[in-house]
Write a structure and sequence with these properties.
The chain is mainly beta and 290 residues long. It has one helix spanning 185-190; strands at 52-53, 63-64, 70-73, 76-81, 89-93, 100-108, 114-124, 129-137, 149-152, 156-159, 163-170, 173-181, 199-206, 209-214, 217-224, 234-239, 246-257.
Length: 290
């Protein structure tokens, strides 16, 4: 059983004084097929909207993972790795989800690499090993890897930040066709809130389509027609085994199962434009020096 951290434990992130975040001017443009998506502020998940909480803010009931790495602190799921791990560590949520809208908040140290797995599969229950797609959870210095779709134990980088992209498969190899951008990369990176601030994340998955939204801005829109694409599976959160020491926190986790394509008219900010990325995957940026 995974226990909560002692009430005597200090917060994972020190408190900071008031912060002011400058708003971004956004021009709404046509051309992004997001069921009428327009410039607006993100609407938070609410129980009355059919969302179900996946975390009670106090315990890890319904989750399973290594208790040496995962606990509850600051009312949040907290993963902490002081040293390099033999493999990435996952905290797995009970249940299986196919089509859904997922909401959560996260914050993390500047050194670190995490993700929120969805439609994923458990490789080994004994070691809590997971494979499948994830909503990448990293600091903004990771550039177009920020907010991307990464497939653990699979195709790796599937869709990058800003992309309106279609994915297919030719002779068993992934082919990425970038059609345009959903928002400028620099705009998306500028919305990132370093700890102790919290970042709002929305993942919408329906059929072959996945949309990521970060801090109210559409981060990517991917249509995955590959036969290798997962369509159903578990949720899990990750601590990457290499980027340490690191601390990651998740809270306000809620999900709504979808039975029809969602109407997200007027809910998120988008400024479509030409592609800012290409089919090739850029190398992973180095973390900032301590």
């Amino acid at each position: 059983m995974i226990r909560d951290a002692s009430s005597a434990d200090r917060s994972a992130f020190p408190a900071a004084g008031p912060r002011r975040w400058r708003g971004l001017a956004v021009a709404v443009a046509a051309g992004l097929s997001l069921a009428g998506c327009a410039a607006a502020q993100s609407r938070p998940a609410a129980a009355g909207d059919g969302f179900i909480s996946l975390f009670d803010g106090k315990t890890l009931d319904g989750w399973r993972g290594d208790p040496a790495l995962w606990s509850v602190r600051d009312g949040a799921i907290t993963g902490h790795a002081p040293t390099r791990l033999p493999q990435s560590a996952f905290l797995i949520r009970d249940g299986s989800y196919r089509d859904f809208e997922l909401h959560f908040k996260y914050r993390m140290t500047e050194i670190g690499n995490s993700g929120f797995q969805f439609r994923s599969w458990v490789k080994d229950e004994a070691t809590f090993s997971v494979g499948g797609p994830q909503a990448n959870v990293v600091p903004a210095h990771q550039h177009v890897r920020f907010g991307m779709i990464f497939e653990t134990l699979g195709r790796l980088e599937v869709a990058l930040l800003s992309e309106n992209v279609e994915i297919s498969s030719v002779d068993g190899k992934m082919v990425r066709a970038v059609k345009g951008s959903v928002n400028p990369v620099d705009t998306l990176l500028a919305t990132y809130r370093p700890a102790p601030g919290w970042n709002d994340y929305v993942v919408i998955a329906y059929g072959n389509r996945v949309i990521h939204v970060i801090n109210g801005h559409v981060a990517l829109d991917a249509v995955d027609n590959s036969p290798q694409a997962a369509r159903e599976g578990v949720f899990a959160v990750q601590i990457d085994h290499q980027n340490v020491p690191t601390t990651i926190q998740f809270k306000d986790i809620a999900v709504k199962r979808l039975t029809a394509p969602p109407d997200i008219t007027g809910r998120f900010i988008t400024r479509p434009g030409p592609p800012e990325t290409g089919p090739a995957i850029p190398p992973r940026p180095q973390p900032p020096a301590n």
